[in-house]
Specification:
Layout: H1 2-27, H2 32-42, H3 48-60, H4 63-81, H5 91-104, H6 137-141
């Protein structure tokens, strides 16, 4: 148990440090050239079926879907294992971090004319902040530690 807690703390600290470093780089606009190069490179591979799959995955990682799943899993886990099993609620800490960083870091998303996603699948969000970093999809779909 002690080794598992130590490993989890180390991994969490490392991930947090990585987020801080990346946030500082994005805030300093050090990633803009790489972002644009990747965006331009990805435009060469237009595929309507892949665009639809990408849109479906993006909708699945959206805040409404993942929030509903987190709440549902919490109810299920707490009924089976007690309050210590409420770890899916930690997703909302990630949502809070996303909300704050989107308002602090100026990093607009790609130009609308380059977006090929199915806009009708975009349900919910954290408001109209206009910034794209951090996207939040990763933190909302990453598995939570087990109690």
């Amino acid at each position: 148990m002690r080794i598992r807690v130590h490993r989890s703390l180390l991994l969490t600290t490392g991930a947090g440090a990585g987020l801080v470093v990346l946030s500082l780089l994005v805030a300093a606009r050090a990633t803009r050239t790489a972002d644009r190069a990747l965006l331009d490179a990805s435009q060469q591979f237009a595929s309507p079926p892949l665009d639809l799959i990408s849109s479906l995955l993006s909708a699945a990682g959206g805040i409404l879907v993942t929030s509903a799943l987190a709440l549902g899993l919490t109810v299920l886990f707490v009924k089976r294992q007690g309050v210590r099993a409420a770890t899916p609620l930690l997703m909302f800490a990630g949502v809070g971090i996303e909300f704050v960083l989107k308002r602090l870091i100026d990093h607009p998303g790609p130009p609308l004319d380059l977006l090929r996603d199915a806009h009708w699948l975009a349900i919910g969000g954290l408001g109209d902040g206009g910034n794209a970093f951090p996207s939040g999809h990763l933190s909302r779909t990453t598995g939570q530690p087990q109690s």
